[in-house]
């Protein structure tokens, strides 16, 4: 079942495109899974990709388009006429279609919508455009199977056969009252095992998880994960059933969020990928490097401030990189643990207990590292006893401080409603660099007394 | 629908447990969702939690147990008799039950299995224990709905009513030949809309994605995500259908993998959480701090080697923290982009093109930062022209080098079959620290000529 896109295959496709041999291409690709078509499109340039999108059945290309990188998709859509785009949207679920429309320029949006054949489909798409993309409304699709509580099982099956045509996957059947208010749910399994004459009101499950159109996407993801849901109905402020969010949208959302946090920790501020252009990448990376730079300049000021020490105790300066690296590493470790705990909702106990625990942990690590450094500095770098002791005590103090800062800042940001993930990466490293070096010099001064 | 666990509620539960008031507890908790029960259990100590697990219906507690942290679950299971554990496993899906059994001590495993009432269920669990937990066999459940291609739709519906009893969610109906070989699939929707007299062989979809029991979990996740599958059948080496993996297991797997990569980037080597004990956390964190420490000692040697410079050009040393921070930050950015690209399979083009691109990007960032530092060093720190120019050129060189190292190492590791994520975080920071400082001094020496 493994699909492997070989270079030879891609070359052959490119040859056919160059020869404008549509029949050969259709013969080759018509049986392809949309995800494989998407993989192929990504390997072509955007003119070749556009050629294939125009050529192949829009039942396949519409789904393949959804799998492409946004930038690449945009370049293909730029080459399609409004009516060609509308053909693709006609085949898409409303949530995907709305996402595509939202990416288009305002003037083209209207033209595309006017070209969509199925008027109900078009109206549903327009309706979805109202919602913020990071809410349940922005994630939901209008396609779902709904039955009224007054129906019989037999009538329900008849009605469902009609509705199911438009729904790719029937997860749950939602039960509403005559006004469309969500009352409960019914699984296909329940329907299959119920007597034909029973009324829906007798067999449906009145307990149903749901979210409001304005519920934040993150909360939707949390609920669906916690309760192991594969689909969740979405209601408006009056309790009317208006759509459903399915697990595949949430899987993408979870992956994107994890990637964003990961990038933030690495000092990359936008959602960039390895293949994005240099300008976009610079915009995402340079700001963090500048923060690091100002940290470095701050450290330069501190060293300048302790200049006399450099002449009296020249050995002290050589351990600055060690102090800096350790402070940075400890800070990143502590903040990552806290940020992940916050994201998971698994952080228990109060702030004080948490800080106490991190300090004890830091103390254990600090003493271990201080002992090694103390011995090596004395026997390898020939520092005096007092110098070695200063370095050892400074390392322990810096590690404990770095752990406290790394723990405290994300919790503080979270309490103020700011994404704590910004506090990982260069931000925490930089502040710990400065605090670490300052602490180191202060302790050395205290002990060596210059 | 929001469930909120208040402190008052927890206190009340603890009070009832202290009073051994089982009836009150049952009255309060019997309607609870298992995920909410799990949340409550996490807030109690393990003795209270054990009390509740013994008290409440194992239909609920079995699922709640699966949601708990492994450590906490283990402590509860330690307090249960083999027959009590077997009662819980009786209610679980085979994949979950096998995971629990695998966590138990060898001598208890056999006792628990002997106490499982449903012998077929017990045999299925034992069978699953054979597979490595990071393979499709380790993720799959035995529960699925299978029909033979020779059956009629009506017969199929009858048979399915029987099978569906044991299956929590019917995603797809799998079609096999008379020997049990996987032939295709059928959706509930198809079954619902097919004529009653049709044969399965006429309506089933012969194209079906599947994986082998030995397929790696990562590959299963990739396939399910790529093809938007909610369940995938698993076959043995003879093509016999033996189980299925469902998307909820994959969601957990994806989240865990993302967390692992994130932790690796932060210099934490095991799967630890904020609430794990100090010893476990030290084991996960100290090794990375030691790597950073040796890097710092390496930097100390380099500075010692350039000691004459410290007396002739004392200004040069004060920019070491800046060089170090910048080298570290650039390296982490580059490696994070590459690691993510590798994880996503979105990395295109050959190694040379990739390195060329990262160098150009680094050059742009490097020139920007070098200009700022050059001006500030000259006008704020009063470096000479030559010193300022040395610093500027060193920064550009260090940034380009750091980007190249950050790009090259993960790709190299990946080619050798090592998880490239180890190359993010402290590892890349440390090597860049050393390279960066060495490069800085060498360039300064070249230009200032001491």
UniProtKB/TrEMBL annotation, chains A, B:
Pfam families registered for this protein in UniProt: CBS, MgtE, MgtE_N
Membrane topology recorded in Swiss-Prot or TrEMBL: Multi-pass membrane protein
SUPFAM superfamilies linked to this entry: CBS-domain pair, MgtE membrane domain-like, MgtE N-terminal domain-like
Transmembrane segments: 286-306, 318-342, 362-382, 389-413, 425-448
Primary location class: membrane
Keyword entries, A-Z: CBS domain, Cell membrane, Magnesium, Membrane, Metal-binding, Transmembrane, Transmembrane helix, Transport
Function: Acts as a magnesium transporter.
Quaternary structure annotation from Swiss-Prot or TrEMBL: Homodimer.
Record family assignment: Belongs to the SLC41A transporter family.
The name this protein goes by in its record: Magnesium transporter MgtE
Species the sequence originates in: Aequorivita vladivostokensis
Species lineage: Bacteria, Pseudomonadati, Bacteroidota, Flavobacteriia, Flavobacteriales
